[in-house]
Design goal:
409 residues, binds flavin-adenine dinucleotide, FAD/NAD(P)-binding domain, five-stranded parallel beta sheet, globular, alpha/beta, seven-stranded mixed beta sheet, Polyamine Oxidase, Chain A, domain 2
């Protein structure tokens, strides 16, 4: 079977690597680099990124690690230890698992109710799930902002509940907690390209797909600069909305069109810091519930020192975008960092803003549309098609696995 893939982001490359085992794969990427929002940007001796914070949410035991192993990609993912901490109101860190210490007795008393709600609540948002209680909202906003780039009020409770079930899926002491790929994001996409090329597949850089060719409701290939490239199936890595712009609207189905109208990306800001001394002090996530904007941060150089110049640390903060005023959002994020680390030696390397067609997530959590499109033989992968309850690149991998199952049928 001849497979055309639109986009060489993580989703396109995972699908390409898996399918190249038995099929003839061509991956078309509009940019001159592959990896999309999951590769490194070398800058002043640091390995910054085009998107992700060099972190794999479920580490060496999650869907991405499993799919990488299945397709034969050689990536070492190191589990973060400790997996997380929280900064309290005094700027001190406590273990993530001691979060009760941060709460008043009244808020602590609600813990059993919250646990029950996580299991049964299907309606409403995370803000509803925590009764809009300000103490709980501070914690849930930090977690949702870090992991999903949405606030509690915009995150469906059912989705949060499904995500938590996947995190604790390994059982007590075996939680699917984060890991760092050695070499950062680029090591992951490099390994996938190696697999695709070793099996005879091709990655075409600088090749923007301008059209999906559809005949009689069935995808027959793609067009690049007006030139037709035949295929038996087409897999798009650019989300449902952008994909739908590439074929004729007469193939649109009303239900699908209605779902498209609801889709929105999640937006956020990443601030990359060059730290002369550790700011976080460990490789896991530092959640920051008591800031104006920053939801959390990590310091990946505790696992892979090669991501920064010798003796330095790469520290990255992340914040969900709360308003459209980007300059104000950045200003508040930078103020947070100053307040959290008043006496530490660090400098700001780069501030990166993610929204619109280069977002944090192409479809905000809970609005996922799956792999199918109204056109037969045209499928979507990537963070526009993750499936329920999977975050970030774990969702990208879970969505690709789901597509592989569909194609087998
Ligand atoms: P993309 O990476 O967007 O790939 C799509 C590709 O298609 C791009 O290369 C694009 O150039 C190409 N393309 C677009 N249009 C066309 C066209 N017409 N023709 C050909 N090519 C085209 N996830 C984690 O797991 N851990 C993290 O630490 C993490 N942190 C994040 C922090 C930030 C600030 C951001 C922005 C994201 C973060 N994520 C993280 C999310 C993760 O980076 C993304 O979910 C993932 O990289 C998305 O991959 P993708 O393949 O779906 O899409």
């Amino acid at each position: 079977m001849k497979v055309a893939i639109i986009g060489a982001g993580l989703g396109g490359l995972l699908a390409g690597a898996a399918l190249s085992k038995e099929h003839d794969v061509d991956v078309y990427e509009r940019l001159d680099i592959y990896g999309g929002r999951f590769t490194n940007l070398p800058y002043k001796g640091f390995q910054l990124t085009t998107g992700a914070l060099h972190m794999i949410p479920h580490g060496p035991t999650g869907p991405l690690a499993q799919l990488l192993a299945d397709v034969g990609a050689d990536v070492k993912i190191v589990k973060c230890s400790p997996d997380g901490s929280i900064m309290n109101k005094d700027g001190q860190q406590i273990s993530f698992y001691d979060f009760r210490e941060l709460l008043s007795p009244a808020a602590q008393a609600k813990i059993p109710l919250l646990m029950a709600g996580l299991l049964i609540q299907k309606k409403g948002t995370v803000a509803d799930m925590v009764w809009n209680d300000p103490e709980w909202l501070a914690l849930s906003d930090s977690c949702c902002g870090w992991a999903l780039s949405t606030l509690s009020r915009d995150t469906p409770a059912a989705e949060a509940s499904a995500i938590i079930k996947h995190v604790i899926g390994g059982g007590p002491g075996k939680y699917n907690t984060p890991g760092i790929p050695m070499g950062g994001c680029k090591a992951v996409v490099d390994s996938l390209v190696k697999v695709i090329e070793a099996r005879g597949g091709r990655i075409h850089l600088g090749s923007k797909v301008d059209k999906v060719i559809v005949e009689g409701g069935v995808a027959k290939g793609v067009s690049i600069n007006g030139e037709k490239h035949d295929a038996d199936i087409v897999i798009s890595n650019i989300g449902h909305k952008l994909t739908s712009d590439l074929y004729d609207w007469r193939y649109m189905k009303p239900q699908y069109a209605a779902a498209l109208q609801k889709v929105r990306p999640s937006a956020g800001i990443k601030i990359c810091l060059a730290a002369e001394e550790p700011l976080v002090g460990h490789p896991g996530v530092l959640f920051t519930p008591y800031t104006q904007r920053v939801n959390g941060m990590n310091e990946v150089t505790h696992v892979d020192p090669s991501l920064a110049p010798e003796g330095m640390h790469l520290t990255m903060t992340h914040q969900a975008m709360r308003s459209k005023d980007v300059q104000e959002e950045i200003k508040l994020g930078l103020q947070d960092i100053k307040r959290m680390f008043p006496n530490k030696k660090y400098s700001v390397l780069l501030v990166q803003c993610y929204r619109d067609d280069w977002p944090v997530n192409r479809i905000a959590s809970g609005l996922d549309m799956g792999n199918l499109t109204p056109v037969k033989g045209l499928y979507v992968v990537g963070d526009g098609a993750k499936g329920k309850g999977y975050i970030e690149v774990e969702g990208v991998a879970a969505g690709v696995m789901n597509l592989l199952d569909i194609l087998k049928k």
